[in-house]
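ok so for the tutorial part 2 we go from a plain amino acid sequence to predicted structure tokens. step 1 is just haveing the sequence, like this:
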Amino acid sequence: MTDSLTQWIIDIIAAGGYWGIALLMAIENIFPPIPSEVIMGLGGMAVQRGQMDFWAVLLAGTIGCTIGNMAWYELGRKLGYHGLRPFIDRYGRWLTMDWDDVEGSVRFFQRHGHHVVFWLRFSPLMRTIISLPAGLAGMGRIRFIGFTFAGAAVWNVFLLGAGYYLGANFAAAEKFIGPVAIATILIVVGVYAYRQIMWSRRKG
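step 2 — the prediction. this is what the tokens look like for a chain of 204 residues:
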């Protein structure tokens, strides 16, 4: 599964170039199991080999990341509390989320301020989730884009740097990409399974 996922990412980048990286990063922020670490890491390897430009890859990845986060932000902003609650009531079982969770995330956002959008870009589990309460809380669109873009750019620099280093050490790269993809998927699945169990007990 991991090999096929990695190969799919490689094929998209090969076919779409910078557009492919932007697309993958947008999808990653809507559907987190696609690991950004692998996407940008492969982009960094391409930079090291002279196949891509560092700044162009960074810009494409950061734009894609921002667009993906905008999808969740706009959903929260458009629906608002009253519009979102029927959705949560109906699909909360599969989202492992009830209305108290939504209100808690919004309170967290309001308590820690808008800068939390920037800092949570470095958290694999929270970087996408925070976009929804940001929209629900009515954070200004320009401010949200600015914090998201800045946080994503900083994080992507680290990922590109790691990929660049591994591109010069291909044997190490082969050992790195597989475990990172596996670890990311296992973390996401594990957290989801844990929340399913806890959600069921809370409702039982």
